């Protein structure tokens, strides 16, 4: 019998009312949910045993002298509602292999997902163990938690080497600083490469550990790896002053335009100014990056230099040094400019990464840090593809890309 939504709600309400009348808690050991979970799992196990033996419980067919039921054995499993003690049916010749709760299985898969979710939020193994103790009144060791999270290492390797789309209109290359113990605790950069697909989706292409001294050779290795995974063409590569990266991009995708990250350029400008100047400085910077062409932008930069050069000379120098990588931005259609400057999704991702690594303090090695960052990535998309919606108004941008980069953009390239 299949219950409709009203019947399900009515049944749930009756169970809750009955639990309250009997003074039974909803969660925790002996609670309503634990009892229901026990009944459902034991019913499923009995169904599996009936299918294994070929007859139902108490059926006279079980007296035929062949393999038959042989009582039950007690087993406690950790579930999403806490520990549940089950009576697992046995057969005489020990050939029964249950699937719903396998032999030697002590946790349901949902528990592993809870551990991975908590770890992705930056909780340490000790904090995850304390969470289970507080919420579920259950003991789960730090070693068990580590083993659960270690399971994703193979999955992470597959994700890092998975095939990618043939074309990405834009890729963003960003750095995140993580504390890693290498003899002593040091700040180590981890690089995240994010692509925008031809259907307007964000695609996290991968995460790589650096050592702070990266050059063209390192970047050529990373970008070649991405190319070998199927990326034949990139229209625009947005990055932020990483040594050797522009040359490596040109060597990997010779038609790709290297574009300095305008948002980072603006933010880095503020580092050279007192906070009370930020609002006025932002107002004076706007005419530069909204200029209609490079000539107008250069004139506005001169105006900016006249006003701020004596107060913040390093801020002006920052823009002049980055000018060659900035001005391609001014040649693009306004819709393409919006995609390049719209970094909300990237900032949101980075905020999640930073929150997770900050909660951990530091990591014993690169692998532990990569695992943490991957768990954050994984939490965004349970399918493990690391994708999510990127922008709402993508069609206008797609048309602009198709015209600007004629013959290189095809929505079917995903």
Automatic annotation (TrEMBL):
Pfam families: Transposase_mut. This is Mutator family transposase. It comes from Demequina capsici. InterPro entries: Transposase_mutator. It comes from the Bacteria. Required for the transposition of the insertion element. GO terms for molecular function: DNA binding; transposase activity. One of its GO terms (biological process) is DNA transposition. Keywords: DNA recombination, DNA-binding, Transposable element, Transposition. The keyword DNA-binding applies. Belongs to the transposase mutator family.
